[in-house]
Amino acid sequence: MPGRVAERTTPSRGEITEAAAATGVLVVDPVPWLCGAGGTCPVVREDTFVHRDDRHLTESYAEAIAPVLDQTMTTLYGTDLSRLPEPVRPR
User: Fold this and answer.
1) What's the N-to-C CA distance of the chain in angstroms?
2) Which of 11, 41, 45, 87 could lock 35 by a disulfide, CB 3.0 to 4.6 Å apart?
3) Which of 71, 28, 34 minimizes the C-alpha distance to 49?
4) Sign of the C-alpha dihedral computed for residues 88, 18, 61 and 71 taken in this order
5) Is 39 left (phi over 0), alpha (psi -120 to 50) or beta?
6) Quick one: pLDDT band at residue 63, thresholds 50, 70, 90?
7) Contacts of 59 (CB under 8 A, 6+ apart)
């Protein structure tokens, strides 16, 4: 129907994990930084709003978790970022 925005479909965690494993890609799950242990995702953490809307983090929260993401990425990939990852080739 003209004028309607198509609904987005979000892949499940299982689909993402399966696709990543099939292509040799590592997945960093952001849920621990966004939601509590019980699965509740707060609007505000400490003094910072978490979400700008239903799909985007606020700039201030993204800046707040950047050091944690940096540490995670360094653990996974090391500190030599001059190398490029190998391209994924279709099977």
Assistant:
1) 37
2) 41
3) 34
4) negative
5) left
6) very high
7) 52
> For residue 50, how many C-alpha atoms fall within 13 Å in the half-sphere facing its CB?
16
How confident is the model over 65-75, as pLDDT tens digits?
Answer: 999 988 988 88
Per-residue pLDDT reduced to its tens digit, 30-43 = 888 888 777 788 89
- Amino acid identity of residue 28, one-letter, is V
* Consecutive H or E run containing 49: strand 48-49
Amino acid at 1: M
Structure tokens at 67: 């050091």
1-5: long-range contacts, CB 8 A cutoff, minimum separation 24: none
- Rg (Cα) of the chain, in Å, rounded? 17
Residue listed under structure tokens 């609007």: 43
List the structure tokens of 21: 């494993």
